Amino acid sequence: MADGILITRERIAAMEPRIRPFVRHTPVLRVDKADFGRSPLAVDLKLECLQHSGSFKARGAFTNLLERPVPAAGVVAASGGNHGAAVAYAAMRLGHKATIFVPEVSPPAKLDRIRGYGAELIVGGARYAEALAASESFAEKTGALQIHAFNQEETLVGQGTLGLEIEADLPEIDTLLVAVGGGGLIGGIAAWFAGRIRIVAVEPEGAPTLHLAFEAGRPVDAPAEGIAADSLAPKRVGEMMFPIAEAYVERSLLVSDDDIIAAQKALWDRVRIISEPGGAAAFAAVLSGRYQPAPGERVAVLVCGANANPAKF
């Protein structure tokens, strides 16, 4: 384990059996790029889009609620939608009150999930950073436990259990492509693999949070624009995940909105998988050719979220 990294394989392995009663072991589907009208290439899709609450975020949410004492005021979270849905779901399952702050760009499908899990939903602000500030103020006033979407040790450890599960499902892979917003997902997964496979980050061109951080050598502010802005566009990547990314993420690839939309549509048209734009971003890198594997390279892609309106499909 690289110096300065607090999220260890041991912590992740110890947490996995604790959250196992509350999360799904999601399936893997092998597809071929030829099925999508491209040059032949076998790709394994890890369908974390089928997780409770519609995304991988349930893992980090349950880890927080099981590892940290929850006060009578309950829990509070800021979210583009998926983290809020996960916290609301975990709170419902464990009997806690939840208050979720979301920005105005959050899609109706995600808001419906949050409400459906019984949380108090507060919509306000143009982007995630404003919802986060409002949630922090709420936590100070009420004493509610704040659960950060990505810059929290427990969140990273919880997302790291997905890396453990991927390794169990796909022990032969060489490369895993993972979408990045705030970096909690790729941070946890990279901490689990710790350099034993190639981890490649995929980001929208309109929200290159990790890409700019790599260039600067530290987390820096990035734009928050584009089709996946609701899920992959925080202001910057988390301070906790960045040392992990520097140590274990090979590089960041950028994909266009058109690439993401094409991947989202292809997943539905060819294999009937519903993915939100952010959830399809990693597959977009493969489908568009932005990621070119070496001959014989065994590639897996994480499809990480499905909170989209089915009517669009």
Short descriptors:
single chain; 313 residues; alpha/beta; Rossmann fold; 2 domains; 6-stranded mixed beta sheet; 4-stranded parallel beta sheet; 12 helices; TrpB-like_PALP; threonine deaminase activity; Threonine/serine dehydratase
Fold blueprint:
Blueprint: H1 9-19, E1 28-32, E2 42-47, H2 57-67, E3 75-78, H3 82-94, E4 98-102, H4 108-116, E5 120-123, H5 128-142, E6 145-146, H6 153-169, E7 175-179, H7 184-193, E8 198-204, H8 209-216, H9 229-232, H10 242-248, E9 249-255, H11 257-271, H12 277-287, E10 299-303
Parallel strand pairs: 2-10, 3-4, 3-6, 4-5, 7-8, 7-10, 8-9
Antiparallel strand pairs: 1-2
GO biological process, one term: L-threonine catabolic process
Organism: Mesorhizobium waimense
Keywords: Lyase, Pyridoxal phosphate
Please provide a written account of the structure:
This protein has 2 domains: about 10-55 and about 150-310, Rossmann fold (3-Layer(aba) Sandwich), CATH 3.40.50; about 70-145, Rossmann fold, CATH 3.40.50. Helices cover about 40% and strands about 15% of the residues. The chain is built from 12 helices and 10 strands. Helix 2 (about 55-65) crosses helix 3 (about 80-95), helix 2 (about 55-65) crosses helix 6 (about 155-170) and helix 3 packs parallel to helix 4. The protein is globular.
